[in-house]
């Protein structure tokens, strides 16, 4: 396993088979959790989903498949169940940051409770604590009955700190890294396909209005899928300035300026019903950038097919 880093409804299990004969490589993104802050099980929020953030990027070639997981909100529960059914025993888990809605699913991250899995964890050391210490503090009495040292996978958990890194390679997958404007900072990731023809940007927990907006626009330039923190409508944002989140209008503006192919509205506010997401949030985005879509739980997108369909011949 090669690591190279550089400084600076009822849920449906989507089991992707690798028996298909590929002429090249394919890149998929699956949305396992799309809600921000807290899970929302209410009926009028189930169309787009109530689990907190977790996405999976799967790269498939004729020789192998490679899965990368981003954030461990409650969405990671179905994500890891699906991966284990697929036969995965090596896991690469990236954290944008360590706020509760992005880590709470670790308590049900099944690979932690097996001895036959290897888990690589990527994130930032913060507040004089190593990445390992931060995760250890999550599994501690009296907040959880199983402490970190009791996890069956303990000897197969590996930590990789991303502080100061601008990119990293994992088994041939190239990932760019960009800081975001969020309390205690968050990270955005641009994940490339094996053949580097397509890319997905995961940029959640960012508040517009700082110099980082300029850097983010460069970072996402011409990506195939831009997943962005679009928590608030323009009117709601006025009551939440400084909270570290953005709007669909700002996301659409970034997408348009950076010439991205598709913009995915993500990190839905817990108070946003399905109707509000469609009639207010999505409406504000589409006025600026037509290729705007609402992130939907359990949806898988073949990024390579989108690239083929949308690239001028």
Automatic annotation (TrEMBL):
One of its GO terms (molecular function) is 3'-tRNA processing endoribonuclease activity. Residues 69-268 form the Metallo-beta-lactamase domain. InterPro entries: Metallo-B-lactamas, RibonucZ/Hydroxyglut_hydro. Pfam families: Lactamase_B_2 (PF12706). Keywords: Hydrolase. It comes from the Bacteria. Gene3D superfamilies: Ribonuclease Z/Hydroxyacylglutathione hydrolase-like. This is MBL fold metallo-hydrolase. It comes from Fluviispira sanaruensis.
């Amino acid at each position: 396993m090669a690591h190279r880093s550089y400084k600076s409804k009822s849920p449906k299990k989507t089991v992707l088979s690798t028996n298909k004969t590929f002429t090249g490589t394919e890149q998929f993104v699956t949305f396992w959790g799309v809600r921000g802050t807290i899970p929302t099980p209410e009926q009028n929020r189930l169309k787009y989903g109530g689990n907190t953030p977790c996405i999976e990027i799967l790269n498939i070639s004729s020789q192998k498949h490679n899965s990368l997981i981003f954030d461990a909100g409650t969405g990671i529960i179905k994500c890891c169940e699906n991966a284990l059914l697929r036969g995965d025993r090596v896991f690469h888990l990236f954290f944008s940051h360590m706020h509760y809605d992005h880590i709470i699913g670790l308590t049900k991250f099944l690979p932690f409770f097996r001895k036959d899995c290897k888990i690589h964890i990527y994130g930032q050391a913060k507040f004089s604590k190593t990445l390992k210490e931060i995760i250890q503090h999550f599994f501690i009495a009296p907040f959880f009955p199983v402490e970190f040292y009791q996890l069956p996978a303990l000897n197969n958990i590996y930590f990789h700190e991303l502080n100061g890194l601008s990119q990293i390679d994992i088994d041939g997958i190239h990932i760019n890294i960009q800081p975001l404007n969020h309390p205690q900072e968050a990270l955005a990731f641009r994940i490339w396909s094996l053949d580097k023809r397509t890319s997905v940007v995961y940029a959640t927990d960012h508040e517009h209005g700082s110099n980082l907006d300029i850097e983010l626009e460069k970072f996402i330039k011409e990506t195939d899928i831009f997943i962005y923190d679009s928590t608030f409508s323009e009117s709601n944002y006025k009551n939440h300035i400084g909270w570290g989140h953005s709007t669909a209008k700002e996301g659409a503006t970034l997408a348009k300026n950076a010439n991205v192919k598709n913009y995915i509205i993500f990190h839905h506010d817990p108070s946003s019903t399905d109707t509000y997401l469609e009639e207010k949030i999505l409406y504000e985005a589409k006025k600026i950038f037509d290729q705007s879509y609402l992130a939907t739980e359990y949806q898988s997108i073949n990024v390579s097919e989108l690239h083929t369909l949308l690239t001028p011949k």
